């Protein structure tokens, strides 16, 4: 935690430094740089295949970029494996729900507490004293999350039987159980109806404001993105098109043409910019 | 019998973690334990032998279920790990003069060590490829059992004594029953506790979705090795108990057939269910005995059936495994849950 003092001085929590990632000959990301400040809701938008999810995979350690660095609180985490990145305070959800289908809702959330718990095979096997107390303590933390997400009624249900909307919500809960400082959400509203989308937006705002969690968000629902984000970054074909406040991005001609699909104007604007 | 509690009346999380929650389940557990203590006294040696084999198989099947059923790492080498436990225990007791109660856990630890070594490929290999790697483990260990004659006495087989603890010799089937039953109960409790705490959740997470497990901070390699170690530890204990019970062990006792028999146990019993290991072990030990009795009874009318017994046994095994995979892929444990759920609200099921 030596980085703590650095973080106090600098408002930047996460910094991507000219990240380049390619699979074979395909460039997924081309020299992408951006900075996420503490306490922000920071959105990454862009058409399908723009490299948004790849960026998340780079941050959480699943992909190793060919060039560039990821700095978290000033510390280089580019080469760390995922299980070492989680304890630093970075949690994420996945675009396609990736829950533990054979476990109950409760156990999924308890797994989110993994890095905060200590019990090993031996003490867990005996289930006396320390291990039992630890289970109880973390059960209480998890119950708070259950309460927050309003999923009390399904806590003992196996995850495989739940509806898609609830699974999305649970995946948010599992990430929250890790008590992250930086929360990466990959399309949390995908495939949801209006009501579920509004619920999810409310949860994200609450997490940001009450738990003081910085949120990095990938989302296609422009209404939500423009409403709740402090900053927006636009990716297109692995390249960063624009960054700024929602208003700035919305008025950016390069972004408009990218979204409307006018290739000539992208080309021209790219030249000009 | 008192009525079941149908709603949720718990007031603390601790209450919610209790294993046997209702009065009825505690009552039946008590009845079961009393029967377990009393009934063996009235059984003949053959039935006691069957019970002991079941108990040993339960311990072995629990181990394989933790590895394959809960962690999702398929193993075709479980039979060989049983063999390591058997030979390790035999060597320690017969050649090094260790007391049995030291040799038993040591045999478990030695087997755990072997399990971890052969579990290393699991970091890179999944599914079918891991199955082939563990198959290699099976054959390497079989080779060692035949050729490291200084320890195993090779194909001639190794004589083993009945175990002795503090001068008390477990030299009859009945005495051995209490030893096996105690250890089987302890193994069941420990396995059950592991799967409901931190390590067990990590195991299941690796099985269900290893990528998100790793992103949530689970060190895949560490927990896969832990699963191999614990699984082999139980295999070692089962092997040791087996060796001291049959009193002569040869490499032929720990072939690939045994590994597959254990896999069949957890498939039939229910992968990923502790109670599935118990059901599966009972089923797989009883099946050949029942078939033997039946073919014996029918031999009057159909004399050739005795000669065909071996072939019939294998055929029935195969049919039953296929039947379970098709009709009850979650095994007997799932059926058991359905029965329990049905009786929970009986007679007002609707």
In summary, what is this structure?
The complex is a heterodimer of chains A (273) and B (350). With 273 residues, chain A is of the alpha/beta class. Chain A has twelve helices and ten strands.
- Largest interface: pair, residues per side: A-B, 43 and 32 residues
Helical residues, percent of chain B: over 70%
CATH topology of the largest domain in chain A: Rossmann fold
What does the average pLDDT of chain A come to?
Answer: 88
Order of helices and strands of chain A: HEEEHEEHEHHHHEHEHEEHHH
Low-pLDDT stretches of chain A are 268-273
- Average of the residue pLDDT scores of chain B: 90
Structural class of chain A, by secondary structure, is alpha/beta
Element string of chain B (H = helix, E = strand) = HHHHHHHEEEHHHHEHHHHH
User: What's the β-strand tally of chain B?
Assistant: 4
The CATH architecture name of the largest domain in chain A reads 3-Layer(aba) Sandwich
> How would you name the CATH homologous superfamily of the largest domain in chain A?
P-loop containing nucleotide triphosphate hydrolases
Strand order of the largest sheet of chain A: 6-7-8-3-9-10
Keywords:
heterodimer, A: 273 residues, alpha/beta, Rossmann fold, 2 domains, six-stranded mixed sheet, four-stranded antiparallel sheet, 12 helices, 23% strand, globular, disordered C terminus, B: 350 residues, mainly alpha, two-stranded antiparallel sheet, 72% helix, 2% strand
List the helices and strands and how they pair.
The complex is a heterodimer of chains A (273) and B (350).
Chain A lengths: L2 H7 L2 E12 L2 E12 L3 E5 L6 H8 L7 E6 L2 E2 L5 H4 L4 E3 L12 H8 L8 H6 L3 H20 L14 H14 L4 E5 L7 H17 L3 E5 L3 H7 L2 E6 L2 E6 L1 H6 L1 H8 L2 H10 L1
Parallel strand pairs in A: 3-8, 3-9, 6-7, 7-8
Antiparallel strand pairs in A: 1-2, 1-4, 4-5, 9-10
Helix pairs in contact in A: 4-7, 6-7, 11-12
Chain B lengths: L12 H5 L5 H16 L6 H26 L7 H18 L4 H20 L7 H21 L1 H4 L5 E2 L4 E2 L2 E2 L3 H23 L2 H11 L1 H6 L4 H27 L1 E2 L6 H14 L4 H25 L5 H4 L1 H19 L3 H14 L6
Antiparallel strand pairs in B: 1-4, 2-3
């Amino acid at each position: 935690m030596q980085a703590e003092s650095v973080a106090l001085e600098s408002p930047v929590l996460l910094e991507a430094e000219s990240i380049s990632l390619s699979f074979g000959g395909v460039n997924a990301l081309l020299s992408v740089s951006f900075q996420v400040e503490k306490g922000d809701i920071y959105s990454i938008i862009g058409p399908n295949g723009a490299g948004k999810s790849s960026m998340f995979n780079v941050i959480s350690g699943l992909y190793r970029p060919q060039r560039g660095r990821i700095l978290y609180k000033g510390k280089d985490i580019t080469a760390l494996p995922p299980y070492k990145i989680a304890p630093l305070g970075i949690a994420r959800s996945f675009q396609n729900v990736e829950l533990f289908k054979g476990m109950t809702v409760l156990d999924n959330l308890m797994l989110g507490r993994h890095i905060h718990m200590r019990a090993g095979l031996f003490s867990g096997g005996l289930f006396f004293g320390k291990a039992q107390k630890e289970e109880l303590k973390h059960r209480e933390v998890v119950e708070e999350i259950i309460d927050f997400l309003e999923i009390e009624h399904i806590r003992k249900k196996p995850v495989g039987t739940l509806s898609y909307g609830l699974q999305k919500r649970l995946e948010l809960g599992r990430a929250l159980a890790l008590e992250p400082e930086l929360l990466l959400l990959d399309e949390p509203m995908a495939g949801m109806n209006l009501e579920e989308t509004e619920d999810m937006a409310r949860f994200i705002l609450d997490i940001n404001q009450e738990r003081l969690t910085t949120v990095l968000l990938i989302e296609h629902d422009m209404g939500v993105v423009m409403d709740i984000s402090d900053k927006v970054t636009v990716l297109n074909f692995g390249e960063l098109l624009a960054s700024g406040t929602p208003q700035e991005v919305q008025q950016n001609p390069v972004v408009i043409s990218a979204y409307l699909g006018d290739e000539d104007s992208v080309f021209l604007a790219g030249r000009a910019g | 019998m008192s009525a079941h509690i149908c709603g949720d009346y718990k007031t603390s999380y601790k209450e919610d973690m209790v294993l046997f929650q209702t009065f009825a389940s505690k009552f039946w557990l008590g009845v079961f334990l009393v029967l377990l203590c009393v009934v063996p006294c009235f059984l003949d040696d053959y039935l006691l032998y069957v019970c002991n084999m079941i108990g040993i198989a339960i311990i072995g099947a629990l181990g394989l279920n933790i590895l394959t059923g809960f962690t999702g790492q398929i193993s075709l080498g479980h039979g060989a790990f049983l063999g390591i436990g058997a030979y390790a225990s035999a060597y320690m007791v017969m050649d090094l003069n260790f007391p049995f109660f030291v040799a038993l856990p040591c045999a478990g630890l030695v087997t755990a060590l072997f399990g971890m070594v052969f579990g290393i490929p699991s970091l890179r290999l999944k599914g079918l490829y891991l199955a082939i790697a563990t198959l290699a483990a099976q054959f390497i260990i079989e080779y060692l059992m035949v050729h490291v004659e200084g320890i195993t006495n090779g194909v001639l087989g190794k004589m083993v004594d009945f175990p002795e603890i503090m001068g008390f010799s477990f030299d009859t089937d009945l005495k051995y029953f209490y030893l096996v039953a105690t250890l089987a109960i302890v193994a069941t409790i420990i396995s059950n506790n592991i799967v409901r705490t931190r390590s067990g959740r990590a195991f299941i997470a690796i099985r269900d979705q290893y990528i998100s497990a790793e992103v949530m901070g689970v060190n895949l390699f560490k927990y896969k090795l832990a699963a191999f170690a614990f699984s082999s530890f139980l295999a070692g204990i089962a092997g040791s108990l087996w060796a001291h019970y049959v009193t002569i062990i040869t490499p032929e006792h720990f072939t690939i057939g045994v590994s597959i028999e254990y896999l069949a146990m957890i498939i039939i019993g229910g992968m990923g269910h502790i109670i599935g290991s118990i059901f599966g072990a009972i089923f797989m030990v009883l099946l050949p005995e029942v078939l033997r009795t039946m073919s014996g009874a029918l031999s009057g009318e159909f004399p050739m059936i005795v000669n065909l017994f071996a072939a019939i046994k294998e055929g029935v095994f195969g049919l039953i495994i296929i039947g379970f995979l098709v009709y009850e892929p979650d095994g007997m444990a799932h059926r058991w849950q359905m029965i329990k759920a049905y009786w929970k609200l009986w007679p007002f099921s609707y």
